[in-house]
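Sat 14:20. Reprocessing the chain from the morning session after the first attempt stalled halfway. Input below, unchanged.
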Amino acid sequence: MADNVILPGDGLPVATDEVAGIHFQLVKLDLGGDGVSVPVVGSIPVSVSGGATSALQATGNGALSQIEAAVESIDSKTPTVGQKTAANSSSVVLASDQSAIPVSGTVAVSNLTDPATATAQTALQTSFGARADASATSDTGSFSLLAFIKRGMENWTTLLGRIPSLSAGRIPVVLPPGNQLTQLAGKPTAFWPNYGAPDSAADKFAVFDSNGGLSVRSAVLTDEGTFRVNFTNTSLAVAIGNVTIAGRVVTGTGFASADVHLKDYFKLDADAESAWSQIASIDSDTQLTLSASYIGGTSGAASRALVQPSTGAGAAIAVASGKCSMTLGTTSGAVTFVNRSVDYAPLVFRGRIDVSQRVANQNIRIGFSEPNPTPKWFARFRLEGADANTVIRTESARNPTSAPSAAETETNTITLPNGLTTTSSLDYRVEMLTEVCRFYVNEALVAEHSRCLPSAYDLMASGVLGQNTGVPASSTVVGVDFVTVKNHNKLEMSLMSKNEQIVAAEPVAVTRSFTQAGVIAINTRIIVVDCLQLRSLSLHCTSMGATGVAAIDWSADGVTWQQNASLTPINGGASVTSFNAAGMWTTPVLSRFASIRIATATTAGTTTINVVGFQSDIATKPNQAVTFQAQPTITVAQGTAANLQANVRNIAVTPTNQSGAITTGGTAQQAIALNANRRGFAILNISAGDLWFSEVATAVVGSPSIRIPSNGYYENPPGLCATTAISIIGATTAQAYVAREYT
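Finished this time. C-alpha cells:
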C-alpha cells in the first residue's frame, strides 16, 4: 500500500509510512517553545534509550539547580546599565593577539579650557626634553627641563664632593695655622688691609685677612677714606687705558699698575666733568665697581683722579709745578672746586692754599661740606667777599632738611696771627669730631665750635671751592699746594670724654723760627705759639735789627693780648720784659697762646728769633740758683678769708641798662660810653637783621667789627673786658637790641 494519505475535508496531504497496510504518521522533532520553531536537524541525532525514571528526574533536577545557581552568580556580577564607579564595573582585558580597535563617535569634553592637541603635545615634549639631551651650559637660556635637571644634578655632585664628612654631626672647619676662632658679634663694614667694599655694604661680619689675622675696625687697623693729593704732573686725570662699562661695573686691564685706589674718581676721557664717579670697590686688576651707575658712554679710553674737579662757567683748573690753580673767572653764579667725598667722623682736613685777591661777589670755602650746591652741613673756613686779606671766618652748621639759617650756624671772625694774609700760602686745618670742631691756621688754633656741628656719619666733600655770588670785578686765582684728610676710625672701649680729642699735638722741642731783614713795623707779632700741650718755652734771639725791641705777650683766645710779661735769662740775672739784642730766655707757660711782638720797630739789619716749646718744665743747670716767683697776695674785697671762694665766684657788680635801637640805618652810633670802671658788658640782637659792634673803632658793616646775627648774643670773654666806648651799626633804622653794662 502506498505511503501518505489525503485528509478529508480540506484535502491536505499527510506524510505516513504504510506498514502491513497500516499508515503510521511521520513526525519531525522541534525543540522551539510556544510560537517558536527550532527544528531538530539531521546532523544532530537524537537517541533515546531507556525510559524516564524518578532517579533520572532527580539527577536532572540537580543539574538544573546548579545551572540556576551559576546563572544567578553571573547575574549578580553583571552591573546594571549606566555609568558606574571602577569598583562596580567589570574589567575587560583584550586578547594579546587582538588588533587595534578603532573608536568612533563624538567624545564630549567638559571642564577643560585647553584640550590637548597634537601641537600642544609636541611643544610639551620639546619643553620637557628627551633622555639624550645634554646638560644645560648655564642657568639661563633655551634648554629643556631635562637639560636643566642634569645641570643641577652635576652641580649637586660637585658640591657634595666638596663637603667633607660630618664630624659629631657637624661640618669640620680648618683654620689657618696659629689662629683660633672666637664668637664674633656685630656687623662692621670693611676692614684693613682688605678694605674694598662700598659704604652701602654694611653687613659683613669680621673676617680673616690674607695673612690669617682677624680683621676688626679700630684706630690701629683702619683708616677708611684717608687720602692725600699732591698735585703732580700736568693734569688731575691719570690714564688707565681702554675700558668697557655696564652699569656700575668697569672692565679693563692693569688697574694696579695705573695706581687706582678705592674712592678715586673714574671717567671716560670723552665724557664731560659731570660724569666723574667715585670708585666703590676694586674687585680685581681688571674690574672696578662704581658707587652708582655710570652716566656717560659705555667704552673707550678712561682716566682716574684723586679728587673730583668741577669747572664753573668762565673758570679754569690747571695743574703745573706741583700746584693746582683754580681760576674762578667773572661769571655770576659760577662754582669751581676740587674735592673728594669722605665719611665717618672724626675727620681731619689739612691743605695749603693761597688766594690772589679778595673781591666783592666772591667766596672761597676750605674744609668740609655736604656735596650739594646748597649744603645742609659743613665745617669750614670762609674767605668772604672783599674782606681784608688778614680776615677769615670759620663756620659750622647742620640742618637735616635744608640749608642752615644764620641762627643755626656757628661763626667766628678771625684776624690772622703773625701778620699773615690770605694772599700767602697758609696751612689750613679743620679737626671735626662729634663733640667739637677746631680750626687752625699755620698750626695756631684760631677758633673752636661746639654748638652747631655736622653728624658723625654725614657724607662730606673735603677740598677747596670758589663761588661767584655775583659778578666779581676781576678773576681770582686760588692756588692749592696739597689737600689731605685723615679718617680716624676707633674701637671704643669705654665712655668718651672731653680728654678724648684729636689735637695738633706739639712734640717735644718744636721750634718756631722767624728771620727778616730790614724794617719790621711796631706791634708786628712775628711768632705765635699754641701752648695747649706745652709747659715751658725757650726763646733765643741770635740777632736784633737796628733800634728794634721785642717782647713776649700772652693770650687766652689768640685775639686779646696781655703785654709786659717777664722772661728769665738762661745764664742768670734779673728777669726782663723785653730785649733788644742777642740772648736766650725761658718762661713757664702762662696762658693758651704766646706771642713774640716787635715792641719798637726795626729800621735796618736782620732780626732772627727762635722759640722752642717743651712738654715739661725746663731743667736748671747743676748748682744754678733757682729763684721762685712770690705767690700772689689775694685781698678779699668782701667777707673774710673763709669766704674767699664765694667772693671770687660772685663778684658784686652793678648792671646798667644800655638797650636801644638803631637811630639811622647804615650809620654807626654809640651803644655804651667809655667807662674805666667797666667789668663786663653784653649785647642781644632782637631785630631781624644783623648788627655789628666794635670796641676798638667806629663800627662798620664788616671787619674789624664783630657781627651779631638776628637773635644772636655777645658777652665779653671771662676776665677780659674792654673799657672803651662801644660803637654799634645796623643796616635798617629801628633795629632793636638789649645791652647791659656791669660796673
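The two ends are 190 Å apart (CA to CA).
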